[in-house]
Predict the structure.
Amino acid sequence: MTLPTRPRRPALPTAAAAAAVAVLTACGAGGPEGDPGASNAPADGYPRTVEHFLGSTEIPAAPERVLPLDAAYVDSVLALGGTVVGFTTFAEDTEALPDYLLDSDWNTGTSDGAVPVGLLWEVDPEAVAATSPDLILSAQVRHGDGYEQFSEVAPTVMSETTGATWKENLVLTGAALDAEDEAERLVAEFEERAAALGEEITAANGGEAPTVSAVRFAGDADGVRLYTPQSYIGVILEDVGLEPGPGVDTGSEEIVTYHSQERLLDLDADHLFVATYDDGGADGVQESKEEYQAAPLWGELTGEITEVDDEYWISGVGLIAAHEVLDDLAEIFGVDPQR
């Protein structure tokens, strides 16, 4: 059974995705819409019913083989000590999960033997079946069109989206893994660490929080992107207590894309964090970046510019990635990382 293809390039955080999934086994089911994250599990944990954006899913037993179809859920499962058996990728030649994810102190799960099951926007149904999952996790914005088919493979739980909702998605994962309390504890722990780090940064900056802009180059057609507080990285920077640069529209959508070099000064702040999507040379990302950075207005930016790792600053969209960002911020500002 084939589902509609994606409407735009999915390697970017807001892209919609679609999947092709064969009706292979029957382990789960969906129902009416409910509040994300709610659970009416009995005392022993399972079977439990998890209410999520696309329905109500019964999980009959503790999941031992979890298939997260989005990077946000790979992160969440590993942060909660679960077992990841497969994952989607942004590039066809990717065979392993990112090193930052595997090496992190906040990864308490396992992904030994985990295999790619296709591109984020083009899931391979045979690869999905081969992982023999007992739980599938994703988001409606990624794979909503395949929800019914995925549910025939294994119990499937989906949030509405990813990005700025990464904390809620961690709690939703906790609901499926009988780990709600742990998920909430991890969120609180992160927020406490971020706030403590922010106090250190503010003190080192003379008692005033510096302004920041998170910028991304993702290809010629995409120009340059500026992330607002309504984005994944924006939530992290706000948790740290860093102020958006004057050009950031704090009430806008999560990403503002500038297709003209005339808007480059809108990026300015005390500190600019610049991420670059790794397209493997296929989409002209590096060429576009060089063109923008060679523009006269780029030279007029007054803030300190720091290149950051796109894998976890922009694409990670989860707790483990967020802690890696905090590590970077501590190094950038020369303060204690508050681990």
